[in-house]
Amino acid sequence: MTKRMVLIGGKSTTGKTASLRNINDPKGVMYLNCETGKDLPFRFPNKDEKFLSLIVTDPYQVFQALDEAEEMEEIHTVVIDTLTYLMGMFETQYVLAAADTQKGWGNYAEFFKKLHQYYFAKSTKSIIVLAHTADIYNKKEMVMESMVKVKGSTMNEGVEAAYSTVIATKKVAISELEKYDNPNLNISDKEKRLGYKHVFQTQITEDSINERIRANMGMWDDEETYIDNDVQIVIDRLHEYYD
Questions:
Q1: For the chain, how are helix, strand and coil distributed in percent, rounded to 5?
Q2: pTM higher than 0.85
Q3: Under a CB-based contact definition with an 8 Å cutoff, are residues 49 and 99 in contact?
Q4: Between the CA of residue 41 and those of 16, 19, 27, 46, 145, what are the distances in Å?
Q5: Is 176 helix (H, G, I), strand (E, B) or coil?
């Protein structure tokens, strides 16, 4: 699996797609829109410098797009927005519509595995996967867990298990963020007035022990538990860490 890969999970309106706004060389980004062609929540400073955006209407188009990206030297990053909607699309088109739904669910699990174990694994591009999270009650542990929710057997192992780097988007009170002083956390005057900031959470805290945030040891300092919700910071850190 490519080392320049990250799963960014979070609930709606916490800044998943907005975190893409500062990616270097936006023309080199293949943006696979799996959410019914929704608009990006930001503008590009230069209309000639924007993502190569493709609206996905069939899950298997993602495989084709990843193959094509490998042949395009100008493409440096592929974004899937979101994995949750992509898998929901597969369920609608290839499970619920199947004559044999049991076989359809098997194909669903196989699609997820092939996406990660073959297409992501062979990719030479940076891979950014966005996904919606949900709070799910763990009966065995008797706790609420926050995780990326999909259907079928894929949930048994967990979506996050396929990624070395998992980051969460959050809305966090400024009073809490002031405990974390680092160059990648910048609080504006507007955010101070609002009393909260959209951030990335890079590491588990006492209040989030049942979330599936993860990274390899030493990737983030303790002070970097919260950083700006800017995916370019993450890409830079991945290159720095693995190089």
A1: 35, 25, 40
A2: yes
A3: no
A4: 10, 10, 17, 15, 28
A5: helix
pLDDT tens readout for residues 55-79:
999 999 999 999 999 999 999 999 9
Interacting residues of 164 by C-beta distance below 8 A, sequence separation 6+: 1, 3, 5, 214, 215, 216
Structure tokens at 110: 């196989």
Which of 16, 28, 132 shows the shortest CA–CA distance to 72?
A: 28
Which of 236 and 135 is assigned the larger pLDDT? 236
- 214 C-beta neighbours (distance < 10 Å), count: 17
CATH number at residue 87: 3.40.50.300
Question: How far is 173 from 192, CA to CA, in rounded Å?
Answer: 9
Q: How many domains does the chain have?
A: 1
Rounded Cα distance, 225 and 205, in Å: 8
Per-residue pLDDT reduced to its tens digit, 179-212 = 999 999 999 999 999 999 999 999 999 988 889 9
Task: Please provide the size of the chain in residues.
Answer: 243
Average pLDDT in the 20-39 region?
95
Domain containing 133 equals: 5-242
Contacts of 5 (CB under 8 A, 6+ apart): 120, 126, 127, 128, 129, 163, 164, 165, 238
Token readout for 105 is 């669910």
